[in-house]
Amino acid sequence: METKSKVLIIGGTGHLGKRLVKASLEQGHETYVLQRPDIGVDIAKVQMLLSFKKQGAHLVTGSFHDHQSLVDAVKQVDVVICAMSGDFHISNHPLLLQLKLVAAIKEAGNVKRFLPSEFGTDPSRMAHAIEPGRVTFDDKMVVRKAIEDARIPFTYVSANCFAGIFVGGLCQFGTILPSRDSVVLHGDGNQKCKL
Fold it and tell me: Is 9 strand, coil or helix?
């Protein structure tokens, strides 16, 4: 008989996270979803969390700003998946918050597998990247180093850039369809591109 895991998903109400929660539940894994204590009146997210609970997920209250709450959440599971947004087009993306999660996983000492928020292009292959995307790849490498230094078993999922976002918008950040009036060229306009 196949062994099922206890899976904690962080960012479970986001674009990718809600799909990961659904898949985990469908696969029969005991699924935990980190619920921020300050979710407030975001009705759509509250309804989604209640729907997850109705489907059998466990809601666990925790925050990146409360180390002990992260440790307590992590101690309940053996797999942690972080699906927090790594929006590269904003200067204050939250990827480095994962360093707090790495510290909690290390302290808990029970996690058999950690999947950090890595669901885009493989940052180890992006040494040539230019701004504004460069900071995201650099920050992902900081998180990778922390995971590896902490000797946490990990899996990096690099699904490459989502063609529906980058190709359709001609790499114009913050838009899905290209402008009919102008296109911003990043760098000096002579950068090579691989699609």
Answer: strand
Residue 7 and residue 18: Cα distance in Å, rounded?
A: 13
Of these residues, 140, 145, 192, 194, which one is catalytic?
Answer: 140
Residue 98 has pLDDT above 70, yes or no: yes
Element (H, E) at 10: strand 6-10
Q: Is 45 a catalytic residue?
A: no
If you search the block for the tokens 């539940």, which residue do you land on?
25
Residue with tokens 């699904």: 159
Q: pLDDT by residue (tens digit) across 1-49? A: 578 999 999 999 988 899 999 999 999 999 999 999 887 778 999 999 9
Neighbours of 74 (CB within 10 A): 26
| Residue 65 pLDDT > 90 | yes
CA angle 194, 16, 110 (to 5 degrees): 110
Do residues 161 and 194 touch, judged by C-beta distance below 8 A? Answer: no
Which pLDDT score, from 0 to 100, does residue 1 have? 56
